[in-house]
Structures are given as structure tokens and as C-alpha cells.
Amino acid sequence: MRVIVTGATGFVGSNIAKVLTDRHGDDVVADRVDMTDRAAVAAHVRRAGADAVVHCAILNDWATMVADRRAAWSAYVDATRHYADAAAEVGIPMCLISTDWVFDGTQSGAAEDTPPNPINLYGFLKAASELVALERGASVARVMGVNGTHWARPATPRAQDPGFGYLVASLVDALEAGRPFTVWEGDDLNGIASPSLGSHCGEVVRAALVAGHGGGTHTDGAAIFHACGAEASTRRRLAEATVEVFGLDRELLRFGPAPREALAGLTIPYDTSVSAVATSERLGTPLLGLIELLQAFRRERETGEIGPPPP
Asked: How many Cβ atoms sit within 10 Å of the Cβ of residue 9?
């Protein structure tokens, strides 16, 4: 299978590309294109001769998004529309990568068909992008609390943020080096989520493409999938489980509030836990527990290679 992956050098995108190439022998097309240029996107999709599109790329800069709402809309919603239209034109499936932040933080255990209710700009742009994609017959895979290896960059891009991303990698980096690490806690953070492993997210996305979801041919309801583990977790529980699985020094683990600058101008959904049961049943993908996900990440980290697909 030949797949266009936008944002293949990003965290989630690099995991999806790695799963496609290393596990399944697929051919990934990762050309850089001006996604806000409709004609350029259409030409790129026609020229690539791909069998599917996975749209991961985003404008990953909160300050720029807030300062220039028009640019943010174009980078998220218009870009999604351009790729969905281009994929539909050549008759191939497309999957949009979305987020649990389309929910407001009060809908614990949200299902794939739970109506979104975003409370910040990022969540709103992703929810709008989902509508654009679904209306054009594309599928949506929501990733959440993503941890794992950034296959396109040797170092963890940041230590921690108000969500769950990079939390495990940065915690392990610190404790393995003998440095203490403070896990942020508080009601103003994303305090509960359903953690995932980047490579497992890639398996869910590929399964959706292979099954034909996102090609406008399915009539079994909206093609929305949740790519995550089977368990919801607090930040504290995830950190403590990480220490256990990686065999780290518990005495170096700290808990405390986030620095004020990390939350400046942000409204964060607190509980974005979801259910992935329907996704597992529709695609036949496994529901992995928190310890299983962390064990798989440890194998990736120690071997430098993506592991075998989960059973």
C-alpha cells in the first residue's frame, strides 16, 4: 500500500509512518506541500499515485494560532478540506488525525459517537476539521495522551505540557539520568485521559484504511475511531506506572502544580477519557492496558526499533 502521510516528521505522524513502513512494508509519501493551497494539494495527491491519505499535519504553535485566527483556520480546516476533496477525487480513503480535546472535559468515557463540545481553540479547530472530513466521506481517528518514541527526532521536543503528550518519555529521560521530575497536577490541566502509544495509534489508523473506512463506501455510521488504550488514567497513575515498568527510582518522582507560564491563556479540558470499545470491535484492533502500552514503549526505547504489532 502506498500512503500519503502529512506531518510525517511530527510525533504522531512519525509513528504512523514507522508502522506503515517497518511493520507492513508500505510505501510512505511524505512530500512537503502548502496544505492551504487547494490546487497544490490536489496536484500532489494526483501525482503521488497513492492508495490512501493520512492527514496528521497541524499548525502546532498555540501563540500563532491565537494571534492569527484566519491562518489557524486555514491550517486546520481548509487543509483538511483540501486533502479530503483531493482523496475523494481520485477515489482513495483518507483518515484525519484528531484529538480527545474535541470534548469539554466533563464527558468521562466519551464514545466515538459522543457529540464534541470543545472549550479551546485547538479543540474547536479539530472538531470543525472532523465535520469537514466526515462530510466528504473521510474517516477520523482521534489520538489521545500519546506517548512513545518520536522517530523523526532524537530528543524529546518538550518536557511536559498541559496534556499527556511526551509525559512518559520526558519522565524516563529525567529519572534515568538521576534527575528529579515533577509531574504537574491540578484542576486547570488535562488531569484524566486515556493514554495511548504512538505505534498502536498507527495500527488503528492502518486498520481503518485497509477496511476501506474513509473511502465514502461504508454505511455503518460515521467513521470515527478512538486510537488509545483500554484504561483511563490520571497523570499521577501514569507516572507511577511508568516508574514501575521502567524500573526507575520512585524517590526522584515529584508532583506539583504547573508553572503559570505553561497555562497562560489556555482553557484545558480536565477529563478527556474515552472508550475505544466500538473501535476495537469494528476494526479488530486490540485494547491494550496501561501496563501493556508502557511495556511496549520500553521495548521500543531499549531496542531503537518499533516492536511487533500487538496481538
From this structure: 17
Q: Which of 176, 306, 296, 309 is nearest to 243 (CA)?
A: 176
Task: Identify the CATH class of 2-303.
Answer: alpha beta
Tell me the one-letter amino acid at 141: A
Q: How would DSSP label each residue in 89-119?
A: HHT--EEEEEEGGGS-S--TTB-TTSPP---
Position of cell 477515489?
Answer: 91
Q: Report yes or no: 77 and 128 within 8 Å, Cβ to Cβ.
A: yes
Give residue for cell 511487533: 308
Q: Specify whether the CB–CB gap between 96 and 80 falls below 8 A.
A: yes
pLDDT in tens, 244-274: 999 999 999 999 999 988 887 789 999 999 9
**Domain-wise residue ranges, the chain:** 2-303
Cβ–Cβ < 8 Å for 168, 238: yes
**Coil vs helix vs strand at 122:** helix
pLDDT tens for 7-55 read 999 999 999 999 999 999 999 999 999 999 999 999 999 999 999 999 9
Residues comprising the chain, all counted = 311
